[in-house]
Specification:
Helices cover 45% and strands 9% of the residues. With 190 residues, the protein is α+β, with helices and mostly antiparallel strands. Strands 2-1-3-4 form a four-stranded antiparallel beta sheet. A hairpin with a 2-residue loop joins strand 1 and strand 2. Helix 3 runs parallel beside helix 5 and helix 4 runs antiparallel to helix 5. The protein is rod-shaped and about 95 Å long.
């Protein structure tokens, strides 16, 4: 075999070694999709096939896996995990052993609209105008819950906590001020 040695995941199994030309033929024949995971010997991580230059024609790109009615779409990372659990001895370990996979594949991709701008605004406002920071952070967190996109959740959570602390301290200060003024009026009364 000339050139780098490649492996791919099919049906939860790590298959290989194969040549790059064979992988390209498999893509053209539809036996390997743009979403399938591939690994080149010597590379630290598995990659989605559509990210390997020259493997998948640009027209194919990333395509959501086809599903049957009522079934859940297959996640290529779950295939990789299955392959690595009892996979080929020379491939990187998905679970973080020798050659951990890229952090880009950690977790699911964001689903809906990002609330990150609102979360950052809530965080900044929590330090300057806590009541507005509380509102912006709350709106960002509820938007994240609605869209299932948690980009900026740390900012929103920090903004909410900081705002609650500052608003709570402001309320205590106002209560203390009112009680002092009330006590002062009571002492100096007629």
């Amino acid at each position: 075999m000339v050139g780098p040695i490649w492996y791919y995941v099919e049906g939860g199994q790590s298959i290989g070694p194969v040549s790059f030309d064979l992988l390209r033929q498999m893509v053209e024949q539809g036996r390997l999709s743009a979403n399938d995971l591939v690994w080149r010997e010597g590379a630290p991580d598995w990659q989605v096939a559509c990210t390997v230059p020259g493997l998948v024609p640009p027209a194919l790109g990333y395509v959501a896996p086809a599903t049957h009615e009522g079934s859940v779409p297959r996640d290529p990372l779950e295939d990789l995990a299955a392959a690595q659990h009892g996979g080929y001895a020379g491939t990187p370990d998905y679970y973080g052993g020798s050659g951990a996979t890229s952090k880009a594949y950690h977790g699911r991709r964001p689903v809906g609209q990002s609330q990150q701008g609102m979360a950052i605004a809530g965080f900044v406002l929590s330090l300057t105008v806590p009541l507005l920071g509380l509102i912006f952070s709350w709106v960002a967190l509820s938007g994240m819950k609605r869209t299932r996109n948690e980009e900026g959740k740390g900012f929103a959570t920090a903004g909410l906590i900081i705002s609650l602390v500052f608003v709570g301290l402001a309320c205590l200060w106002i209560i203390g001020l009112v009680s002092c003024l009330g006590a002062g009026l009571h002492v100096s009364g007629p």
